[in-house]
Specification:
With 394 residues, the chain is mainly alpha-helical. The chain has two domains: 3-93, no CATH class; 112-393, no CATH class. It is 61% helix and 7% strand. It is built from 19 helices and five strands. The chain has helices at 3-16, 30-38, 44-60, 68-88, 95-103, 112-125, 132-141, 147-169, 211-221, 226-239, 254-271, 276-283, 292-301, 308-317, 323-333, 338-349, 357-371, 375-383, 388-393; strands at 23-26, 176-182, 189-195, 198-204, 248-250. Strands 2-4-3 form a three-stranded mixed beta sheet, covered by helices on one side. It has a two-stranded antiparallel ribbon with strand order 1-5.
């Protein structure tokens, strides 16, 4: 392990002592983690200074084992960690600057005219009568997956998507995903990558799971999303090439935007732009409500509403809106019921995840632009190191 890579791993693990959840995954040298965890946490000031020195050393080309692309990739991650450290230390880092430094994109709000147009499209396709928000909520909540069938639905979708992923991209021998249900989390699903080609994927059941989201969630977290990317890179980059920087996955780095973008793009790449009939084939036999035609129409009409999450993040962190105003914005523009709006605000105000939402919003658009319908280019996202700027330039 080169000095630069070792310092990067130490920096990430050290900052993780100050922010719960910053280290999303680690399967690197176990002795390194034991040493970091056994010692008192390094002061934030020392970690910030080390991040600055590491960027300078990378710019000076001190580690001759790194090619230019790998050096640029590690540098971008360190810049993100430097920003996280400064923010944790109380430095006045502007929110938009924080997002750009951590994730490689500069966020902008989506115009309300685009959201109103999405509302009109939804009004045209939603069944029922009455006001748009009431109809949208009633339709979505009518698609609740009965708790007693949720695990069977997940297994059925995961088995299918795993087989398709193996055919399309190849999966390493011995890879495995364990599915678990959890409570009291700010997210809907989470991939805990454990190393040795293993993942534990948690589904949050604080709120009832809706059938239109289930296929995307399984694809995003496992096949061909996070688990597939982690396991392919463990074999191709870590074991074959010794790129140990891939053994740590850190919130607050551009690596996250690419990972979330390819995971969000995974279902349409694997099954096609309209995967609803395939998903229906798994859910209908279990008695789960799922009208493929209506789900497809609503998904297409309301796609722009995903951007509401970014608008509300900017409302909170730039404009200074409080929780009630943020919840109201989700209710108005994303047409969410209050309990789901509150859960969305919880994610946007969590100390670990406050800037992370743009990994989804910007990530999927950039990955879709890069892939452009070419399955081989999606495969490249699974096995190569990319930065957000690479996806635009390629």
């Amino acid at each position: 392990m080169g000095d630069v890579v070792s310092r990067y791993l130490e920096l990430g693990l050290g900052l993780g002592r100050h922010l719960d959840g910053l280290v999303d995954a680690y399967y690197g040298p176990p002795g390194l983690r034991r040493r970091i965890d056994a010692a008192p946490p390094r002061p934030l000031g020392a970690l910030i200074a080390e991040a600055g020195r590491l960027v300078a050393d990378l710019d000076a080309g001190d580690d001759s084992a790194l090619d230019d692309r790998r050096r640029a990739w590690i540098r971008a991650q360190v810049v993100g960690l430097h920003t996280v450290g400064r923010s944790l230390a109380g430095e006045p880092v502007g929110y938009v600057d924080e997002v750009e430094a951590c994730y490689g994109v500069r966020p902008e709000p989506v115009a309300e005219e685009e959201l109103r147009a999405a509302h009109q499209r939804l009004d045209d396709v939603l069944p029922g009568s009455g006001g748009l928000r009431d109809r949208y909520i009633a339709w979505r909540e009518s698609q609740t997956v009965p708790p007693e069938t949720l695990e069977a639905a997940i297994r059925s979708l995961a088995d299918d998507f795993r087989e398709r992923t193996d055919r399309a991209f190849g999966l390493p021998d011995g890879e495995h995903v364990e599915w678990v249900l959890e409570h009291d989390k700010p997210w809907a699903g989470f991939n805990y990558y454990l190393g040795n080609l293993r993942s534990r994927v948690a589904i949050n059941i604080d709120l009832p799971m809706l059938s239109p989201a289930l296929g995307h969630l399984v694809a995003h977290e496992a096949y061909p999303g996070h688990h597939t990317e982690h396991s392919r890179k463990e074999v191709g980059l870590v074991r074959s090439k010794g790129h140990l920087e891939e053994t740590i996955f850190l919130v607050g780095t551009p690596q996250c935007l690419v990972a979330e973008g390819l995971a969000d793009l995974g279902l349409e790449t694997l099954v096609g732009e309209r995967p609803e009939e395939t998903i229906a084939g798994h859910l209908r036999p279990l008695g789960i409500p799922y009208d493929a035609e209506v789900v497809a129409a609503v998904a297409s009409a309301g796609e722009a509403l995903a951007a509401v999450r970014g608008n509300v993040a900017l409302l909170i962190h730039v404009d200074g809106a409080g929780p009630d105003e943020a919840v109201a914005a989700f209710e108005r523009w994303a047409l969410l019921p209050r309990n789901r709006a509150e859960k969305a605000v919880q994610f946007l105000t969590d100390p670990t995840w406050r800037a992370y939402i743009f990994c989804y919003i910007e990530g999927v658009s950039r990955c879709r632009q890069f892939v452009d319908g070419d399955i081989e280019r999606f495969q490249r996202l699974l096995i190569e190191q990319f930065l957000p700027s690479d996806l635009v330039a390629a």
